[in-house]
Amino acid sequence: MKKEIIDVSKIKDALEVLKASVKKVEFTPLQMLAAEVDGIEGVNARDALEILKYTVKKIDKFPIEQVVETPTDVTPTDT
Questions:
Q1: DSSP 8-state class, residue 39
Q2: Three-class secondary structure of residue 51 per DSSP
Q3: Does the model's pTM come out above 0.90?
């Protein structure tokens, strides 16, 4: 059985997100935006969990990517 290589940098990212969720480190606004992946306002432990799940391929999208999906084939109609 072939072992998959796990991106350790993403695991470290998840750890930093977890630290930020308990105010052990401070994120810049851009880091906060990038860390917010669960669709719930604010960085929290669930964001760290979602990053870990993505890293080990348990999910292929973050929850925030599934919140709003705009159909591309919709044609406006006159009323």
A1: S
A2: helix
A3: no
